[in-house]
Amino acid sequence: MSKGENPTNSVRDRSLPALAETVHGCRLCPRLVEWREAVAADPPKRHRSEKYWGRPISGFGDPAARLVIVGLAPAANGANRTGRIFTGDRSGDWLFAALHRAGYANQAESERRDDGLRLRDAYITAVVRCAPPTNKPTPQERDTCLPYLERELELLGEARVIVALGSFAWDGALRAARALGADVPRPRPRFGHGAEADLGRWRLLGCFHPSQQNTFTGRLTVSMIDAAFARARELCA
């Protein structure tokens, strides 16, 4: 996709692999392009020997998934390095361990794109596809990226439940669902761990993001994230 092109005219790919190729070539947000490439060109010492992905991140998982998990954005030295969402960072360690315990993943670790990780009945994506400075995308960057999430939800025809990891993902999921014609309740559903919202085709479920800020402080515990995915499985049935 060329700079300045309207994403709503571009995100009409007819398959998830085709959409992934469109995402990988996106350069619509100059600040994010500059940041992700700068990090890739000058990584921290612990990753200095690795070749960074340094491009936008597509979603991945089971194309027949009933569960869609939405995060905020790639981590600068996580997915921006490995090329797969939540792969190679501490948040991913928590997330994939929980998915493994819940029966959604064949293994509990996520280190590289080619590490053998497979998801069953689950698909993971994000609201913003490039690593943002200080992990804070702007509203304009969010809105520019949202058509990718909208198109993924269109293509994931079996999806029934969306788990939003954090308030930013909750907000993005509501916006994407509304753009696809969902009847979002009024007043607008508020995020919280365990919060639920009926969006018609989908049930939106809130879960605190498995960031170190939450897991190190005990705001998110193993039992809490396990309960969230147990509830997701109930809702998918």
Characterise the protein shown here.
By secondary structure, the protein is an alpha/beta fold. It has one domain (11-236): Uracil-DNA glycosylase-like domain (Uracil-DNA Glycosylase, subunit E, 3-Layer(aba) Sandwich). Helices cover 36% and strands 11% of the residues. The protein is built from eight helices and six strands; from the N terminus they run ααββααβαβαββαα. The protein has helices at residues 16-24, 30-41, 79-82, 90-101, 139-155, 167-179, 212-215, 222-236; strands spanning 60-61, 67-71, 122-126, 161-165, 196-198, 203-207. It has a six-stranded mixed β-sheet with strand order 1-3-2-4-6-5, sandwiched between helices. Strand 5 (196-198) and strand 6 (203-207) form a beta hairpin. The protein is globular and about 45 Å long. The N and C termini lie far apart (38 Å). The model has no long low-confidence stretch (mean pLDDT 94).
Strand coverage percent: 5-15%
Give, in spatial order, the strands making up the sheet with the most strands.
1-3-2-4-6-5
CATH topology group: Uracil-DNA Glycosylase, subunit E
CATH C-level label: Alpha Beta
Distance from first to last alpha carbon: 38 Å
Number of helices: 8
Short description:
The protein is of the alpha/beta class and 237 residues long. It is built from 8 helices and 6 strands, in the order H-H-E-E-H-H-E-H-E-H-E-E-H-H. Helix 4 (90-101) crosses helix 8 and helix 5 (139-155) crosses helix 6.
